[in-house]
């Protein structure tokens, strides 16, 4: 970070390639008298989700601190330690500005893997125990704050596996009720570098609020086309009127490959009004795959500046190995592309669904499948919804009784077909095949339950079809957890214990009649962030006709003629 420049952390967790280095004039806070406690602990991730993933040792556990005062504080006078006392004590470094959060991690690579941002400090010597431990913050030799978990300290019963503990208020330095378990939202596992603690109110009444910058709606991965070009949109929101400049720079690319014109996006933002921007790379040397930086600067008329600098993966076309293939060859190529994925526990699915099925118009809610309604995230079976028929549950779109009854099998927790659904609809649907129902036994939220099949409401039909096609292609009998060859067949009343599901040609018709929605695309992107694979039939709807069209040609012709 450049001297005198404050890098504000926005909500963005997605990062983009940068080709042209961007420098900034100085911007700094002035010191004013302290009106509230100095540095406090604000977040801790002690049980990382990476501990169970193939990465193994890259855990990325972290501690976060916050400055609620009106002074710039020298962190060299502070240290953190755990139950090992001074043996593993870690001395902090640098300065922390008023209202600023800073993160310290024991593993830089794991932290970047989890949160797609850099920590402020790393190589932390403090070890965060998974089965009861604490972190104490010291100013010189005086203990000034503490957070504990899993009964390591009396009264501290908090337990947070695969997610962080977050401070929600500052009523005291050792108050357990000041802390809660992070429950999801737009970011998995925690919110390092950001938070909702009160900003300091300083005595200087003439001092204006600092300029804030928020960047959102940027895909984590940008795809390079066959010509080495790419284009992407993102949204910028500032707290004051400001000129926004975004540049791609050459830091990670050979200088001789930077002969093309600069890639620049600029716009004038209005206070607290989201501004959608576009940045293209349409020229010059082909862009190379890899992780890169992206810089966005906001500057007010008075000269106040703030910058965001983040990371993203630039990748070759995800479906490059499928190009030119059709029918069975396309099916096999797609299977190879989407097979590798992160596998979650069934318990972890609750929080994953809160993110991938989040209502983007109300981030406290999720959208339930089949009904398409917005429901509070906590109102689920076993949670605040208890056993309410209209609390949400985890729906296996491809029923687990049709091929994968064990939780250890990959398909059991595959996010591409797991959806939140009202308990009553989930139960009434059971393991029925999908088909048109002319004489329903019962109708729930425009979904028809028949004796032999289940017909979703129109708004859900296209998404259901594409989820079922994904499962048919993803699981071809070559899965490492022994999921059998799942197959779509053109029939209903498939045997309960068989890996077959129907009705293929009805699903293909629904796919054609109900095109991919913006919400489906967003869900696909979010699953890719978490699980690491995509649904080909959302990205390339034409694949469905190529793979299944010949099997349904006569059926679809008869339906069209009828």
UniProtKB/TrEMBL annotation:
Source species, domain of life: Bacteria
Key word Nuclease present: yes
Record has Transcription regulation as a keyword: no
Pfam families from the UniProt entry: Endonuclease_1, LTD
SUPFAM superfamilies: His-Me finger endonucleases, Lamin A/C globular tail domain
InterPro entries in the record: Endonuclease-I, His-Me_finger_sf, Lamin_tail_dom, Lamin_tail_dom_sf
Residues in LTD domain copies: 25-184
GO molecular function annotations of the record: endonuclease activity
Keyword annotations: Endonuclease, Hydrolase, Nuclease
Family, as annotated: Belongs to the EndA/NucM nuclease family.
This protein's name: Endonuclease
Higher taxonomy: Bacteria, Pseudomonadati, Pseudomonadota, Gammaproteobacteria, Enterobacterales
